[in-house]
Every structure is written in C-alpha cells, then in structure tokens.
Amino acid sequence: MAESLKPEWSHVNLMRRMQPGTVTRHLSAQVLDRIIDVAIVVFLICSVVSITGAQAAILVAQAAWLVKLVRAPDKRALHFPLLLPMATFYLASVLASATAANPWLSFKDLRNIFEPAFFFLLVNHVSGDERAATLSYILIAAATLMAVYGLTQSMSEGAAFRVHGTMSIYMTFAGILMLSALVVMAQLLFFPRGRWFWGLVGSLALLIAALVMTHTRGAWIGFAAGAALILGCRQKRLLLALPVAAVAIFLAAPAAVRARIHSIVDPQDVTARERLYMWGTGVQIVRDHPWTGVGINGVKGVYQAYKHPNAVRDQRTHLHSNLFQIAAERGLIGVACWLWIWVAFYRQTWMIFRGLEPGTPRASALVVGSLASITGFQVAGLFEFTFGDSEVIMLVYFLMALPYVVMGVDRKARVHGTEV
Prior knowledge:
Strand content: under 5%
Number of domains: 2
Number of helices: 18
Structural class: mainly alpha
Distance between the termini: 54 Å
Helix content: over 70%
Order of helices and strands: HHHHHHHHHHHHHHHHHH
Radius of gyration: 23 Å
Mean pLDDT: 89
C-alpha cells in the first residue's frame, strides 16, 4: 500500500516545491492549449460553411499560440518543415508587389500571411495520428452535412443548377467537396476496420454526388487524379476500378451533367477555348514582365491590353490556372518559388509514407489522404485559380500538415526542421 502511494506522494512534494510562477505558467499553457484546440475545431466546421468564421478561428488559434511561444522556456522543439520555400515565395511576392504598377493593391493581399502560418501551428501543436484522425473526422462530418445541403439545392432548383452550398460560388464548394472526399476515400481504403466504416461509405457517396452536381469539371478531374493516387498507393490493380466507377457515374448522372462531362473532351466548347485564350494572355504578360510579374491582383488591370481578339470577355480577374496566374502576377521568380513548395512537400511526404512502420493503417490513411487531396488541388488548379480561393487554400494548409503531425515524436528524425 505504501509503495503504491509513492508516485502520488512524490508528485505532491514536487508541486509543493514548485514556485508559484511556475504553476501559473503551467496553468496558462493548459488554457492556451485548450483555446487552440477549440479554435482548430471551429475552423474545421466553419471551413465548409463560412470564410469569416474560418479566418477568425485561425487568428484566435495563432494569437494563443504566439502567446504560448513567448512564454515557452524552450523553443528548440519547434519544427518548421517547408519554411525555406514558403518564406522565399513570400519574399518573391513582396518583390512583385513592390514593382507592381499598383503596389498598394498588390500589398493588400499579403495580409493573408496568417493562412500559411496556420500550417506551422498545426505541425507543432497537434501530435499523433489519433488526434489528427479525430480532426479529420470533424472535417468529414461538416463537409458531409454541407453536401446534403447542396443536394437539396439541386432537388429544389433542378439538375442543371450548379449547387454551391453556403459558399459564394460553386467552384469553391466543389474544391471543398473534392478535398473532403479524397480524405474519406483514403480512410476507407487504408483504415477499413475503423468503427466509422459504413458512415464513411455513406459520406463518400454524398460528397461525390454533391461534387457531381456542382458541374465543376476541374474539380472532377482533380478528384479522379487524387483517387488514382490513393488506389495506386493501396494496390495498383485497384486502378482498374476507376474507369468503371467513372462510367457508372456518367450513366447514372442527369442529362445536364452528362453534357457537362462530354464538354471536357469537346474542342469546340466555348469555355475550353476561353481558357486557352486566357493562358495565351498569361504568356504574353510574362514575356513583358518576366521576373516579377504585374503584381498580386494586377492581372485585372492589364488584361484588356493583352486579351486575345476572339476572347468573349474584356475583363478577367484571373487566368483560370494557378501556374499562369502566379507567373503573370509574380513573375518567373515567384512561380519558381511556388513550385519549390510543392516539390519539397511531395518529397518529404513521400519519405514519411515510405518510412511508416507496418501496422499503422490510421497514419497511412492520413498521409495518403493528404497526398491525394493536394494532388487533386494541383490538378484542379491547372484549370482554375484554386490557389487564390481562400476557403480552399486554408483547408489545403490543414491537409498539408497531416503527414508531419502523424509522425509525432519521430518527426524530428524523419524530417529535420526546415529540410527542403
């Protein structure tokens, strides 16, 4: 009996010896941790509902984290993967803004630096695959509810209506649905014995159905690319199921959706030609402003001077492509730094995936889900300016953090700080 009390007694003596200031700091750290935890959950819920709520939650989490860092006695345990390419891209953006025709308009967009900073908060605050999985399930639940709401819009407005949920535009809603569906798919294939298996099956069906009804071809193609990555990582022969599923969706889809799918391969489609014209405009802008571009949000001001004579619209705020838009805005320097971020991410995340020990299905599901969702984001970004969509990019930073989060205490050994 006496022996069993020793640990508790030692703990009591230790607490008595602690200085009041130390106890206060310990309690303050616990309060700050709780604030950060709640803010992350609020962000995940609001990320599919309201950009204002999502951004407010991120700011609250970062403010609490900053206070915690200032008070922390030892900051050597912090990890900042991708810091070098991200910081270089930000500096390239500052340079592009300083040399822009309208620097003030360009500099205003740099205030969103808190969005990529959220990635570093998640990497350092959340630890372990169990907590990461819980956060993913919260996202999945919120996205599924929004998918149901989107489907009710389709039922009330008709199959030709492009559902948008609570988002301002269907393309944003499609991006969120695409990312969430890929996270669910990875969970199903890599962690099939989870207790939420059948719930995830239903969630995936609803998310895909709502994604289809957005009529957003770029997000469809992005989902197909991400799904192919998941299937290939799980078992290569499963890739044979992808065209079968695509045909089944095509046959089951309403006529308006089938027409939209057919337009993907129609060279006479008006929107496809418009994209080619916009990309040509981007090339012309880069030729005249090769190194630093025309500045963030500067494309709108110069578009009319560069637009193709056969283009339908005289004004465009962006060029419907991440690559062309960033090259036009921030020049070859900026786009090179931007590509560096993703090359480094894929390299590090693939190393994390290959380094996972056998018998870690939850961690595998999270890492592959992250890889697939970022792949979907990038492929969709070939046809849309997804990097400029705040609702989507905030969710992307959350998903990017998952591979580093699941590493837990082994993260430092696997990915060394600012390794790129």
